[in-house]
Design a protein that fits this description.
This protein is of the alpha/beta class. It contains 14 helices and eight strands. It has helices at about 5, 35-40, 45-60, 65-75, 90-100, 105-110, 130-135, 160-170, 185, 190-205, 220-235, 255-270, 285-300, 315-330, and strands at about 80, 125, 145-150, 175-180, 210-215, 240, 275, 310-315. It binds glyceraldehyde-3-phosphate (G3H). Belongs to the DeoC/FbaB aldolase family. DeoC type 2 subfamily.
């Protein structure tokens, strides 16, 4: 631990969990249910209350020093390390997988005294074309490969092709499938069509975990976000995910709050747990801490776990590593010392 860190007196309640663990302790257990349209239509969102609550999160007393490093390590364990670019190559995906296995430089891990954590990210997320490359590069690590699917990002290819795409990625070794929904179903209030679509995708995923991307930036209202969250959970989603990273507005805290509260309501009424994955535009350690604080306050510590919470992010890890270096040495290094892929 750094000299700076030793001087701090951590406040009780600042610790991310009783013990920082790098492997999932909890898992989604959503079996889905019949579409309950009354419940869906009943969803109401108090916009100003949600915005006011979200605005308090970045302003709240930040978690300091000793515990901040622990929270940042927790954040790393929850990252779906992602590359979803038109210029992706097998070499870039292999570099990303290497980073997934060793997300923080060995000297920093040693200085933090957390060698025993065997820290890894939660998953590596790629297009179908790179699933096999990633599976091969991650063999023996236990890190699952997530494939974006169903015509990502717009989700407008023919339905049969979208279903076939899921099956191809599962056959190639993807253990997690990030599907996109048809936004028109949400915008038109066609909840039965949305339910049937997600149910078919769920069936095609088989044993693979299904993360349902709502593309919230396309959904027009927070009420639509709340209703779509609920329908996707009823259809059996393991996770609900905010965004593809390609919409003009991606993961925001108000959207995250609405989704987290939908997960909480669903859990309270059915007893089943669904995970949350904010994705798109989360690139700073401070933003990651705001999300983790929100999750702890809205869903409880159980959800602060890679089994129930993920960040979909391509560059967040670099900034977290930079903050950890600052924690250890008291200095900030330049960005290029923390390449991701
Ligand atoms: O699902 C993950 C996102 O596409 C990543 O978005 P990002 O590149 O803004 O971090």
């Amino acid at each position: 631990m750094s000299k700076t860190a030793k001087k701090q007196t951590p406040k009780s309640g600042d610790e991310p969990t009783a013990r920082v663990t790098a492997r999932p302790q909890f898992h989604p257990d959503n079996r889905g249910m019949a579409l309950d349209l009354d419940w869906v239509r009943d969803v109401r969102i108090n916009l100003s209350a949600v915005e006011a609550r979200a605005a308090t999160l970045p302003k709240r007393r930040s978690v300091k020093k000793v515990w901040q490093a622990a929270w940042l390590l927790k954040a790393i364990s929850c990252i779906d390390l992602t590359t979803l670019s038109g210029d992706d190559t097998a070499e870039r995906v292999r570099r990303l997988c290497h980073k997934a296995k060793t997300p923080v430089r060995a000297d920093l891990i040693e200085a933090l005294g957390v060698q025993s954590l065997d820290l890894q990210v939660a998953a590596v997320c790629v297009y179908h074309a790179y699933v096999e490359t990633a599976v091969e590069a991650l063999a023996g690590t236990g890190i699952p490969v997530a494939a974006v699917s169903t015509g990502f990002p717009a989700g407008l290819s023919p339905f049969a092709e979208r279903v076939a795409e899921i099956r191809r990625s599962v056959a190639a070794g993807a253990q997690e499938i990030d599907i996109v929904v048809t936004r028109a179903h949400v915008l038109g209030g066609h909840w039965d069509a949305l339910y049937d679509e997600v149910l078919a995708f769920r069936e095609a995923c088989g044993e693979a975990h299904m993360k349902t991307i709502l593309a919230t930036g396309d959904l027009s209202t927070l009420r639509n976000v709340g209703r779509a969250s609920l329908v996707c959970m009823m259809a059996g989603a393991d996770f609900i995910k905010t965004s593809t990273g390609k919409e003009s507005v991606n993961a925001t805290l108000p959207v995250g709050l609405v989704m987290a509260r939908s997960i909480r309501d669903y859990h309270e009424r059915t007893g089943m747990r669904v995970g949350l994955k904010p994705a798109g535009g989360i690139s700073k350690a401070k933003a990651a801490l705001d999300w983790l604080a929100m999750i702890r306050e809205e869903l409880g510590r159980e959800w602060l776990d890679p089994g129930l919470f993920r960040f979909g992010a391509s560059s967040l890890l670099g900034d977290i590593e930079r903050q950890l270096e600052h924690h250890v040495s008291g200095r900030y290094s330049v960005d290029y010392r923390h390449p991701v892929a």
